[in-house]
Amino acid sequence: MPQHRIPAVYMRGGSSKGVFFHARDLPPAGPARDALLLRVIGSPDPYGKQIDGLGGATSSTSKVVVIAPSCRPDCDIDYLFGAPAIELPVIDWSGNCGNLSAAVGPFAISEGLVQAPRDGLATVRIWQANLGKRILARVPMVAGEVQEEGDFCFDGVAFPAAEVVLEFLDPTGTDGSVLPTGRAVDELQIAGLGRLPVTLLNAGNPTIFVRAEALGLSGTETQAQINGDAELLQRLELLRAAGAVAMGLATSAAQATAERPHTPKLCLIAPPQTYRVAGGKQVQAAELDLIARMISMGKLHHAIPGTGAVAVAVAAMLPGTLVNQLTGELAGRQVRMGHTAGTVTVGAQAREVDGSWQMEKAIMSRSARRLMEGWVRVPAEG
């Protein structure tokens, strides 16, 4: 039978890549759409390579995005993010990709979904449908086209590009709670690890913070060291799954592992240290407020997820969290965090009201580029 031919755009956003679709070109949300998108990406693949699809066999490159005009008066477009598992027939729709958020505005403008000025900055109002939150994207325009070339650089991406500034408005959980248990520090009992202090945070994406030293790590380990240690990864997943249950995101650890591989994220934090990243760059301790290493889809992320950086910035604002204990009072400046590929700074704005903290927004810069456009082909039985 002939293959399905579906309009699609392959885009880089921040340090991630994904396949972008118009909602109108896909089946309605449900098993049929999931099956089609899994086939596009090349999952499930027992070999773990996604050879027969557009996925890149990492958590940063196995991603899909569905875009539609928004019916909300305060937004221009609806943005839905999916994280296909590599070896399992599962797409996790529970969270956002902060890096790919940078590509949503440029996609919407280039596809004619949003009007933009001929020159200057276009503001695209995005409804992040997974989390029920708003994002503002400031997209540079030149001669009626999205500007992609530029001199903005950040660690984790090899080439410079034009800067896209993102504002994540009210980035806390859908119920407005930033600390789902109401405590800055909780304790989780984990088989093989004992009783561990953690901070459970709901901002950007749900995130579990733990001190690297509590796991016998320095926080400066390389991707190869972490991802090559199957026993360590298994223990980290036990911790992540237990955190999901404690946050009310899953009824059991088994459900969290099987159905929510994308969220919550697990972040290993450590005090500032001098270390060397991939490519030979040396990060100086004096440049940092802390080190943050994210476990994403079961592996150490090659840089840091955008939503992970947002979560770090929010946690740094909250007195008593494990992150705040490392950073101390920042006096309103952005958090300087070291990650697997280098460094990044992210800011958060908050205010205390009647003894509780209200997060107003988190701000970060990324870049985006359209890599390929046309049609993706999927076998008819897919």
TrEMBL record:
> Looking at the Swiss-Prot or TrEMBL record, what is one Pfam family this protein matches?
PrpF
Q: Which InterPro entries match?
A: PrpF, PrpF-like
Q: Name one GO biological process term.
A: propionate catabolic process, 2-methylcitrate cycle
What is a single molecular function from GO for this protein?
Answer: isomerase activity
Q: Which UniProt keywords apply?
A: Isomerase
Q: Is the Secreted keyword given for this protein?
A: no
Transferase in keyword set: no
Annotated family = Belongs to the PrpF family.
Full protein name: 2-methylaconitate cis-trans isomerase PrpF
Q: Which organism is it from?
A: Pseudomonas oryzihabitans
